[in-house]
Amino acid sequence: MSTRASHHQVTTGLNETRWMIIKDRLGRGWYKFRRNPISLVGGVMVLLCVFLAIFAPYVTPYPKHAGAFTDFQNAFQAPSKSHWFGTDALGGDVFTRIIFGSRISLMLTAVVLGISVPVGVFLGLISGYMGGKTETVIMRVTDVFLSLPALVMALAICAAFTPSIDKAMLAVASIWWTWHCRLVNGITRSIKTEEFVQASKVLGASPLRIIFKDILPNCASPVIVKITLDAGFVILVGAGLSFLGLGAQPPAEDLGTMISFGAKYLPERWWMTVFPSLAIFFIILGFNLLGDGLRDVLAVEEGV
Amino acid sequence: MVLFGLSILIFIIARMLPGDPARLALGPFALQEQVEHLRHVMGMDKPLPLQYWTYITGIFHGDFGLSFQTRRNVALDIAHYLPATVELVFVAIVWVLVLGVPLGVLAARYKDSWVDNLVRVMAFIGVAVPPFVVGLFLQLTFSYLLGILPTTGRLSLMTPAPPLRTGLLLLDSLIEGDFSALGDALKHIILPSFAIAMTGIGQIARLTRASMSDVANQDYIEASRGFGIPNRVIAFKYMLKPASIAPLTILGLTFASELSNAFLVETVFAWPGLAKYGIRAILRKDFNAVMGVVLVIGLAFVIVNLIVDILAGYVDPRVRIKHEEGE
Amino acid sequence: MEEKAILDIRDLHVWFRVYEGVSRVLDGVSLYVRGGEHVGLVGETGCGKTVAMKTAMGILRSPPALFPQGQVLLAGRDVLKAAPIELLRMKGKTISMIFQDPLSALNPVFTVGQQIIDVIRFGHRWIRDDGALTKTKVRGIAMEALTSVQLPDPERILSLYPLELSGGMRQRVLIAMALVNRPRLLIADEPGSALDVTIQAQILSLLKSLVKEAGIAVLLITHDLGVVRETVERVYIMYAGRVVEEGRTVEIFDDPKHPYTQGLLSSVPRLTGEALAEGIPGTLSDYTEAPSGCRFHPRCPQAMEKCTQQKPPMVKVSTKQHVACYLYHGGGG
After folding, report:
1. What span, in angstroms and rounded, lies between the C-alpha atoms of B191 and B88?
2. Which residues between 267 and 296 in chain B have a beta carbon less than 8 angstroms from any beta carbon of chain A?
3. A and C interact (at least 3 Cβ pairs within 8 A)
4. What interface predicted TM-score (ipTM) does this complex get?
5. What is the pTM (predicted TM-score) of this model?
6. What is the CATH number of the domain that holds C259?
7. Which range of residues forms the domain containing residue C276?
């Protein structure tokens, strides 16, 4: 019928304009991003870390030192020309192990966020849109998970399993979705009543369509900013878990585990602790700067 | 309430764990009957919901079950270790308020000057460094390199502890008038509490700065100036109060981050607190203990959030009025 | 003529340092208010009237504001050069201001009582010499002030927060706060324009009676010509940071000289006969790149070559009326 055709036309028209606006915003955003020193520095730092992590075997001087490796003759060497950051208790080159360790940390973060963000966003959209009992149930569950600080919850969950890195990842992921869920829920609820959503409804768009075409793009900016800021925090939590012995286990150490082992040898053999610490600081700082810069660029409010 | 949900969740997880905690506790050389006996004593052979029920009712009598490790009532264990952590977190909050707020105010006052930029950078770094790293660095500098502050523990081996009243060393030694113990305890608590407070200080400083500069642009501040109210009064009274609303609401979150930081820092400084106890419990799969710790923390949370809500209502009448209108 | 002026602004230039450059908001504004006079300042939003008034009050923040030229004399003393303590003394006693939006002008986290008491206490330091101020005395003054603005039950109102009052009540509280220290000059920045028309009328009549009683001079800032006609004796018309015409209200309304004034008056919809009101085409330009010469020339239907080159000076067109326009340059004095 003519109504359906015009409906289609109108909705496509609306959507096209919406995507145009988003593209424009992105373009402008990129321009601002380039001009904003904070985000630029952060971006560079992050890229550097990611690059090093991905190409670890090709970039490090002693790729064989990663993982299980012992060379007790060379253990405990102070930083020197051949070992820039010295060697650790088992003789591995600290510099190499740091890079491989960051690889593990970053991988952990990627997995955690990769799982928790889609789940969280999805649940947030549904609960926000449906309202009523569905919303109450979902938000109550979210509340329970948010009732404790992230690290504590993760610890508690890890308690149930033998310490290992995948359990740690699962633990953190199973908590993390709640933040995104809550964020998206809030946005959905406030947008739900706006006119353009009503308009789509009146035109007969299906709920799924409304959710994906109308509401989702509006969540994009805050979620993206949150993801970058999250990255820093997830690394922190992950490193914390490893530091306590619950995350990455030797010999596939991540930075947290390295620090915890190195701490035993303070203060004489400082390089085993100091350098991994600096590395972690660098990574987290990079993500934080990036996130902050993005927040400015995409004009999201503080407190996200 | 949320606590219920929390307890159910943790309970399920804890009970699901693979591996036999009883065996872990007794060691690989224990005989099978001994393991069975322990399990029976612990009530592990009863069906799951029944276990949960006994547990919950037990809680209301202050019975948190027995710890696998120490065989003592978990409640006793917790009571033993709790004050140390309370002290630590409390001092950390003091740090946050004493350093964070003034720094934020300073930064707002001298906005865009070098002071402002310095504060912002410091705050940023504070948020980016993991607390255990902070703790280690502090140890390195102050204890090892400079040797002015002690490395671990709450009290030096040489100093006798004051009689146990509240368990809060600072308070107990004060009550007792034992100033050498007080001084010693203070020296011990400085580093770990600061390590915990770092993130909080950064967050509060940034927020206070933003909040203050927001308020400074408000019409009502201009109006007060127009009515002849001197600048100093404006700054400390008329700007500070509205500006403190935002940081106040974060206080709950700050408490949360401090608590989780405590877990990391207590390990670094060998601080005999709840967190350390909790971690040991986790590593040894002492799930009664874990439950206990988790519930206590959850409870602490609820209380703190409640306090923050009340305070917020006190400072900002808008919140109070909305409550009265039945929000 | 300007001798007894409480407020005398002479050739004031105010610039702001902004991101894009320098925004020359006020470009030579001169006006005065004598004791007991009621003067109006009319202009559209953005013409700089608020900036001028904030300068007079001494509440503009000095970076980013710059004062390259001109004087602002309050009771003889130049506000721009005065020490902060002198400025403090003048606020509340010599000059006081009512803001446009009563909700945003009151601090939301303090009660009305706390705020007005502070105004009294701090104003007291300079004016009252009838003994020390005790708490009860201050409260008494506060309640008196609230009664004078026709607020019922002042005791209760003192303990309320701004949020708990209606818009009209808030505006009355603001008026009370502005007048409690008996200023000689009151600047009213679009009073009541944030409120309902009926309430606005009440507020305006209240204001009228209060200032008449106390003999306070008033500078009424507004864009509402109707209000101007009913309340003030003299009027200044401002456009884009300059005064373009001034004179007695009656004369200006009967025979506006400046093309802008003419445009303004014809924009007011009339209830009788005639065609629809015409607006003035175009909008105010950006102050960082203001038009050269007469700032109105891009929108002026009678613009001439001369108008783009130099700023037209004010010339007298009758005993009390002055215009800044080249149309009158040749003929006038």
Report:
1. 10
2. 267-268, 278-279, 281-283, 285, 287, 290, 294
3. no
4. 0.73
5. 0.74
6. 3.40.50.300
7. 5-94+184-328
